[in-house]
Design goal:
It comes from Cylindrospermopsis raciborskii CS-505. This protein is an alpha/beta fold. It is about 40% helix and about 20% strand.
Length: about 170
């Protein structure tokens, strides 16, 4: 049998991918993994498809999180931070996205803010499917394009609310 047509059981698929049978079932049910049914009704997965999946693909198979990021420069702007968070959460909620919110208090020139570091780490781990900002400069005053390039590399959509268009950086 040609390798591209060879199929394997759900258990073998789970072993190949290093995930549980339940996870394989969920991915199959959502259309993320192609399968066919055997005459006895069991799922059979195409070995060639399974062999092509890379660790980075796992993050695309799982639902990745939307992160809302808010930042203000100083403690006297806490009301503005609260307003940003409310806008971000209302926007993400209205779009039906499951989200987390990360906020920072610190200069847009400071790259060592806890929230920013957490955000960058999550993006590089492939956990973030979407980054939502109220304005481009809320991320960083200078250097946001570098973060956007990182988002492109890790296939993270960037949504800037004050622009009327969303764009996938891919």
């Amino acid at each position: 049998m040609e390798d591209s047509q060879m199929t394997i059981s759900i258990g073998d698929t789970a072993k190949e991918l290093g995930v549980s049978v339940k996870t394989v079932r969920r991915w199959a049910d959502s259309g993320k993994l192609r399968f066919e049914r055997s005459p006895s009704g069991h799922r059979r997965f195409y070995l060639a498809d399974i062999k092509r999946i890379t660790p980075r693909d796992f993050n695309q198979l799982e639902d990745r999180v939307t992160i809302n990021y808010a930042r203000v420069s100083s403690s006297d702007q806490k009301e503005e931070l609260t307003r940003q968070i409310q806008v971000l959460e209302a926007f993400s909620g209205a779009n039906g996205w499951q989200f987390e919110t990360i906020s920072d208090l610190g200069s847009g020139l400071n790259y060592n803010k806890k929230g920013l570091q957490k955000l960058l780490k999550r993006i590089m781990q492939g956990d973030v499917g979407r980054l939502v900002l109220t304005h481009k400069d809320r991320l960083l005053r200078f250097g946001s394009e570098l973060v956007f390039a990182m988002c492109e590399e890790y296939e993270t959509e960037v949504v800037i609310i004050n622009k009327s268009t969303r764009h996938l950086r891919k």
